Structure formats: C-alpha cells, structure tokens
Amino acid sequence: MIDAENRLAYTEEMETSIRASFIEAATLILNEIGFTGLSVGNTKDDSRERIDMIAAIGLVGDLKGHFVISIGSNSILSFVKSVSGHLEMHNENPDDPHYRKALLGEITNQIGGRAVALLSLKGIECMITPPTVITGQGVETALPEADDRLTFPVWGTFGRFDCAIALKRSKVI
What we know:
It contains three helices and seven strands, in the order αβββααββββ. By secondary structure, it is an alpha+beta fold. The protein is globular.
C-alpha cells in the first residue's frame, strides 16, 4: 500500500503498470463473457466512429481519477448484441437504449473492479465509484483535473471501444 509519507509523483513505470492492469482486466472480463479474438491495447488503425456513449467510474484511494469507456452507436449495438448472445440473455432487447446504457455501465464497473483488484496485488490500494453513463450524438469526455491520461483501444468482432484512465498525480506530502 502506498502511504501518505511515501506517495510520489507517478513514474513512467507506474503508468505502465496501471495501464497494463486495466488492459489485463478488460481482457479477462471480456474473455469471461465469451469474446474471443480480441485485440486489447493495440491500435489497428486510427479510424473511429463518432462517440455516442460514454461510461465512467471514479477511482479513489491511492489513485484518484476516472476510468472511461467511449463507444460509437454502431459498435455499442453490435457489442450489446454480442454480450446478450454470449450470456444467453435472449429476453433483453439490444435496441433498448436503457439496456445498452445499463450494459455498458456494468461492463465498465466490472473492468474497473477487476483492475483495482489487480492493482492491489501491486500494492496500489483503491476503490471505484458507481458508473455514470452519458449518451448523445458526438459526446466527449472532459476531465480537466487529470494530469495523466493513459489510453488503449479494444477491438473485436463488434467493432471498437476506447478506454482512458485519467489520473490526478499524487503529490509528495
């Protein structure tokens, strides 16, 4: 655990470790759901859909900031259909915007929860807040309090979503 007396500004090694923990968490959670052939953390290309849905959780404790998933309307519909199929949730309607929001919020929550468990094994103790999901044509994230922004894409048969870990640097006390 990082205590207040030993809390240092983030180093490149720590940023790499934090990003790697979130990438591992995303891979584990999506594999558990039934996704195969994913590309997590590797950029296939820079083409992106217009972002129409954002889900975010807060990070508190040794890390302060947010974990954010952003996704376009074509990818979210395909992603929700895929998740519903993998989990055999045949009574749910992927066209229902409330269901899509709930599902993306839950996936963000699960990836964040798994990431903080992995970070705990590295001595970084933190917790997550409940997810918030925002929808709209061309929505964007603005996290002005973040000093560091660690990003990675997730590609699959559903399309792509992008993840960002926005962190406030710890100060030496």
